[in-house]
Amino acid sequence: MPDFVDQVVLHIKAGDGGHGCASVHREKFKPLGGPDGGNGGRGGDVILEVDPNTATLLEYHRRPHRKADNGRQGSGANRDGANGGDIILSVPDGTVVKDAQTGEVLIDLIGAGTRYVIAEGGHGGLGNAALATAKRKAPGFALLGEPGDELDVMLEMKSVADVALVGFPSAGKSSLIAALSAARPKIADYPFTTLVPNLGVVTAGDTVFTVADVPGLIPGASEGKGLGHEFLRHVERCNTLVHVIDCATMEPGRDPISDYEAIEAELRAYGKLEDRPRLAVLNKADVPDARELADIVRPMLEERGMRVFSISAATHEGLKELTYAMGEMVAAARAAAPVVEPTRLVIKPRQLGDAGFTVRRVDDNTFQVTGVKPERWIRQTDFTNDEAVGYLADRLERLGVEEELTKAGATAGAEVVIGSMENGYIFDWQPTLNAEAVHQGPRGSDNRLG
User: Fold this and answer.
1) Engineered SS bond to 18: which of 81, 130, 279, 395, CB 3.0-4.6 Å?
2) Which residues of the chain fall short of a pLDDT of 70?
3) Where along the chain is Mg(2+) bound (predicted)?
4) Cα(63)–Cα(99) distance, rounded to whole angstroms?
């Protein structure tokens, strides 16, 4: 089982709304005291919340299916059903939420306490007490609760660290972060020992900052080779880059300058990192040949504008000077950075004059109606109850659906689909079902549907 997970697909389901209740008040000497069916409770939401104490998505790797509570059904005596409980899923700061099917970015969660309702619970259905009108004094039906949202999302964590240690595999980044902090990453002398980011907290005087040791780069990483973007996306939010250069490598075709230039080429090719301040670390100075090579390489890197430190992660030589240099760069970057505000959720109201639905002619005798209200009303209707179907017809007529169908050329008997063509509700349109008719007949029936 992994101990660090930075990307996971989460299957979420909001709670369904409770059904409304169709009930008539009854007591001695008063057998029909009027409708008293309560409303159904609302289904619970699924909410993502940024928690500073959460550093991994491991919990969702172990349990990828999450569901909020359903709302309870209403009951007689005007008793409403209880609302379903929300579930709050804690995520690390800097989590990107994407649609698992399309890859579309839904939101980028930044800032402690930021919340986002990723799946809304279904509305509870109205009971017959709430549906009573002067024309329909004792409705023999209630509205059904709506199903809650159900979707798959991908959570992607981009490490929010101050300093990123960049360099070839086995350059000594894991050893360096272990020497600088209390982090204890896996360390070995073979390539790609580090497969996931390691984070360590470092203190330099009054400055406390986080260092990320992320998987090593190879040429072509910006195009996805090796660990590719699995590495680079963790660097994206670090405000300082530290090149860790191996001065004791024995691999043919490699030397400190070519390693440095190869890493810089990948950072430039990836983009978004050009403005990050950098410094270079010549590692493994405890090896005599490496120390001599570091003395030769230092002026060459300084000519490229780099601030250079010779260190040994094994003996801790030069680490104090390096720590304070990183602290100075982090403090400067923090002072220059704009204040990070929590993610703002933008609410877009419907435009004035928007009817809230559209009617589209599919073919000669088929029409499609789409829109939030008509599709919601379909989900709320109990089609085994004629009175409920008649009530739906009244609602659609008042909304203007019948008028728009007539304008589109629909005639009696035309096939009308409300919702998607694949999963929508299909019925034969009868324009005689209008809101001007007064309901008559036994409860649960509608004389217009005889």
Assistant:
1) 81
2) 1-5, 31-32, 159-160, 182-197, 214-234, 339-355, 432-450
3) 174, 194
4) 18
User: What is the per-residue DSSP string for 202-262?
Assistant: EEETTEEEEEEE-PPP-TTGGGT-TTHHHHHHHHTT-SEEEEEEESS---TT--HHHHHHH
pLDDT for position 288? 86
3-state secondary structure of 178: helix
β-bridge pairing 240-246 and 278-283:
parallel
Question: Alpha-carbon torsion 297, 299, 304, 309, what sign?
Answer: positive
In terms of Cβ atoms closer than 10 Å to its own Cβ (0-12, 13-18, 19+), residue 27 is exposed
Give the per-residue pLDDT at 266. 79
Say what the pLDDT of residue 287 is.
86
If you count them, how many residues does the chain have? 450
Q: Please give the Cα distance from 376 to 105 (Å, whole number).
A: 26
Largest Cα separation within the chain, whole Å, is: 106
Report the first-to-last Cα separation within the chain, whole angstroms. Answer: 63
Amino acid letter, 236: E
DSSP secondary structure of 55-66: ---HHHHH--EE
Beta-bridge partners for 164: 212, 241
**Binding positions:** 167-174, 192-196, 213-216, 283-286, 312-314
SS3 state at 310: strand
**In the structure encoding, which two tokens stand for residue 338, read together?**
């704009």
Q: How many CA atoms lie within 13 A of 112 on its CB side?
A: 5
CB 281 within 8 A of CB 211: no
The pTM (predicted TM-score) of the whole model is 0.69
- Backbone phi, then psi, for 261, in 5-degree steps? -65, -35
User: What per-residue confidence (pLDDT) applies to 188?
Assistant: 42
For the annotated binding site for GTP, the residues are 167-174, 192-196, 213-216, 283-286, 312-314
β-strands 65-67, 358-363 pairing? unpaired
Cα 11 to Cα 65, 97, 262, distances in angstroms = 5, 13, 40
Q: By the 8 A CB rule, do 281 and 166 touch? A: no
Report the pLDDT value the prediction gives residue 66, as an integer from 0 to 100: 96
Nearest CA among 352, 444, 339, 437 for reference residue 389: 444
Q: Count of CB atoms within 10 A of residue 433's CB?
A: 18
Residue 150 φ/ψ region, left for φ over 0, alpha for ψ in the -120 to 50 degree band, beta for the rest: beta
Residue 181 · residue 323 · CB < 8 Å: no
Annotated binding-site ranges for Mg(2+)? 174, 194
